[in-house]
Amino acid sequence: MGKGKIDDRVYALYDAYCHGRLSRRDFLNRASTLTVAGVSGLAMAQAMLPDYAAAETISFNDERIKATYVTYPSPGGTSGEMRGYLVQPAGEGPFPAVLVIHENRGLNPYIADVARRAAVEGFLALAPDGLAPIGGYPGNDDDGRAMQRSLEQPKLRQDMINSARFLKSHSLSSGKLGATGFCWGGMMTNLLAVALGEDLSAGAPYYGRAPETADVPKIKAALAIHYAEDDERVNATWPDYEAALKASGADYEAHIYPGTRHGFHNDSTPRFNEAAADLSWERTIALFKQHLV
């Protein structure tokens, strides 16, 4: 089903479902009460669910990359150990490094694919799985979302900070570190910029909530900040964030993509906007090449 056939009310229900405010059952049940131009809301809702296999962009066995899973220490995190998906470009390195941070459901196939996209561009990419200490991404987003919500959030955030430090010091890393993330990962990218200071050279958060205003002066990374136009909850944090970035003299650019919704970069659901996803990714890669290479 094309995105043009999905009613705005179903998009709103899906957003609530994605962010844990509705269960899958409630999402489908509420959508099923709608009918628009002869199309059932249930059919629209089912079309919103991700299709990861169809959305894969870079194959795991692409000859331009080498992918593997790695484990590493994570003191102060959920269990003291973390696991992530490490993707290196072809060649011996060292390579500039990019951390790719997942949404609120663990390391799903979309995020692994984004890590491979970064590696194809010449970056050593690590996509940590915040769910690794409790079994890892379970193979579906519903259980992944529940698992991530069950974690102690300060410990989960520490696992991401430790993942960034592991990647920066990796033997294949040049020592130059960037980060990007989506939704929860966008928020975490902002928090990494605060926590790491000069150790993070560049960050590209996608539709992520802003850090605390008082912490913004700690940010030393160059930022390319991406927002969807129709994303009231997240965008409400932008004005204060922008004012603080200006006041601190930060190196940043911000883009709000017309006609887009939260999650527009994720090509596994109808919220995907190809033009905005491509343009934002071009800007992200340009940022990393400017500041990491």
Describe the overall structure:
The chain is α/β, with parallel strands linked by helices. The protein has two domains: 3-48, no CATH class; 59-292, Rossmann fold, CATH 3.40.50. The chain has helices at residues 8-18, 24-32, 41-48, 52-55, 109-120, 141-150, 153-168, 184-196, 232-235, 238-248, 274-292; strands at 35-36, 39-40, 65-73, 81-89, 95-101, 124-128, 173-182, 202-206, 222-230, 252-261. The protein starts with 7 loop residues before the first helix and ends with a helix. The relative contact order is 0.13.
Task: Summarize the model shown.
The protein is built from eleven helices and ten strands.
- What is the count of distinct domains? 2
Helix amount: 25-40%
Full CATH superfamily name of the largest domain: Alpha/Beta hydrolase fold, catalytic domain
CATH architecture annotation of the largest domain: 3-Layer(aba) Sandwich
CATH topology of the largest domain: Rossmann fold
Low-confidence stretches: none
Query: How many strands in all?
Result: 10
Question: Given this structure, which CATH class of the largest domain is correct?
Answer: Alpha Beta
Task: Output the radius of gyration.
Answer: 18 Å
Give descriptors for this structure.
two-stranded antiparallel ribbon; single chain; 10 strands; globular; 293 residues; Rossmann fold; alpha/beta; 40% helix
How is this fold's topology laid out?
Blueprint: H1 8-18, H2 24-32, E1 35-36, E2 39-40, H3 41-48, H4 52-55, E3 65-73, E4 81-89, E5 95-101, H5 109-120, E6 124-128, H6 141-150, H7 153-168, E7 173-182, H8 184-196, E8 202-206, E9 222-230, H9 232-235, H10 238-248, E10 252-261, H11 274-292
Parallel strand pairs: 5-6, 5-7, 7-8, 8-9, 9-10
Antiparallel strand pairs: 1-2, 3-4, 4-6
Helix pairs in contact: 1-2, 2-3, 7-8
